[in-house]
Amino acid sequence: MASDQSSPHIVLFPFMSKGHTIPILHLARLLLLRRISLTIFTTTANSPFIRQSLADTDSSLFHVVDLSFPQDVPQVPPGVESTDRLSSMSLFVPFANATKLMQPQFEQVLQSLPRVSCIISDGFLGWTLQSASRFGIPRLVFFGMNNFSSTVSRVVVRDGLLANVGSDDDPFTVPAFPWLKLTRNDFEYPFRDPKPGDPHFEFVVEQIVAMSKSQGTVVNSFYELEPGYLEYWNREFEPKVWCVGPLCLAEPPTVQSLQNQKPTWMQWLDQKSAEGRSVLYVAFGSQVGISTEQLREITIGLERSEVSFLWVVKSKEVKFLEDGYDYEERVKERGLIVKEWVNQREILDHQSVNGFMSHCGWNSVLESLCASVPILAWPMMAEQHLNARFVVEEMGMGLRVVANNGSVRGFVESEMIEKMVKELMEGEEGKKAREKVKELEKLARMAMEKGGSSWRTLDRLLDETCMQEKVI
Ligand code: UDP
């Protein structure tokens, strides 16, 4: 790694889950473009993904450090170093807490590095603030949520708005944003039911405290998308938020390989395109676990909708689809089920893909926006319910499935799936969402261009936070 004492040198430390690592690697690209040298911390099992993702960049400018992931941690299965490999997200907190055991290794390496201008570490790695302070280095938080979800959550907690709501589905208004109608079901534990002493609650509080003591927050969003929520946060809360996205636009489009070297699903999409068919892309991210009963409804809904679809499933779901159920055979003329890791951006960018049934993980939403693909929102966990509201009610780039009982959370029947898939792909509401997402895509691209809002924000952030000698 080329580095001298005067040129900026930034440490990046992504959290060990795909949805957190991918955008920070996109941020790495933006920093490398500015000739900033980087040291990227990860763990041994995550290292190949990181090295591969940056294989086309200038390797003289960055260095990847592989720390050993703690072994013999209660509840964390041996060899699992990424949340997408956990058998259940109920193991998330023990997993995330295990990362704290890497602090001595992290500090040992930190000590040996050339002068570090700042550390940008994930919001779930709050303990890195302590290391940064020990070495007198500013820490910025890399935060995976948009401003809508983080500002609304913070306001709702600050103003105690969940306390007086009758049932989980009773709508309430947020005085700071009077046009919003939310329900308790839009929020995940521990926001909706704080239990001091509970490990999940304590973990979240620790991260929030570490964040509030950090020098700033780097957010994967752009000013034009949510100016009101961003300004509200920066007026009312700390630390300051810097919007530098959508970061996925920092990655160059995939170079088209020869037809027979493309993954089979990309060949299949080409075929659908040649047949003049629109395809619905169905994927629920890298972590969500879907019950067998719910999977069954999805299969029926997709089959009855008669649209063409490409559905990426996870290993647990594969078993259901293969268990004496001739589904793949029945839908083979217009449905393809993919059982491996795909390049999601490449799929969304394909000309035949015209709709995305998505869990509304924030990266998926931004990737869809940047590909001008409207969303059928089906949130499952974390802040995805708020993201879904943002996608449908504020951005206007999607429709939404609703549970049987009219709730934003719960079991969704095949009739609802069929109806909403048809509406997204063929109906008037889908058409409106498609028009809206095209406008948003243009704004997003402008924000990321040289001189655009995100570009300038990153320059200012680097200038104010990382390029100065600071005494903390
Ligand atoms: N992803 C991918 N291929 C897959 C599954 C996921 O490229 O087969 C990527 C996806 O493009 C996105 C990230 O993994 O960048 C998932 O992040 P998101 O916030 O959408 O959801 P999460 O997995 O964190 O729930």
Task: Break the fold down into its secondary structure elements and pairings.
Blueprint: E1 9-13, H1 18-33, E2 37-43, H2 47-53, E3 62-67, H3 92-98, H4 103-112, E4 118-122, H5 128-134, E5 139-143, H6 147-158, E6 172-174, E7 177-182, H7 199-212, E8 216-219, H8 227-236, E9 241-243, H9 264-274, E10 279-283, H10 292-305, E11 308-312, H11 315-322, H12 327-330, E12 335-338, H13 344-349, E13 353-358, H14 362-370, E14 375-377, H15 384-394, E15 398-400, H16 414-426, H17 428-448, H18 453-466
Parallel strand pairs: 1-2, 1-4, 2-3, 4-5, 5-8, 8-9, 10-11, 10-13, 11-12, 13-14, 14-15
Antiparallel strand pairs: 6-7
Helix pairs in contact: 6-8, 10-16, 16-17
Describe this structure in words.
The structure is a single chain. With 472 residues, this protein is an alpha/beta fold. It is 41% helix and 15% strand. The chain has 18 helices and 15 strands. The protein has helices at 18-33, 47-53, 92-98, 103-112, 128-134, 147-158, 199-212, 227-236, 264-274, 292-305, 315-322, 327-330, 344-349, 362-370, 384-394, 414-426, 428-448, 453-466; strands spanning 9-13, 37-43, 62-67, 118-122, 139-143, 172-174, 177-182, 216-219, 241-243, 279-283, 308-312, 335-338, 353-358, 375-377, 398-400. Helix 10 (292-305) packs across helix 16 (414-426). The longest helix is centred in the C-terminal third of the chain and has 21 residues, at 428-448. The protein is globular and about 60 Å long. The model has no long low-confidence stretch (mean pLDDT 93). Bound molecules: uridine-5'-diphosphate (UDP). One of its GO terms (molecular function) is UDP-glycosyltransferase activity.
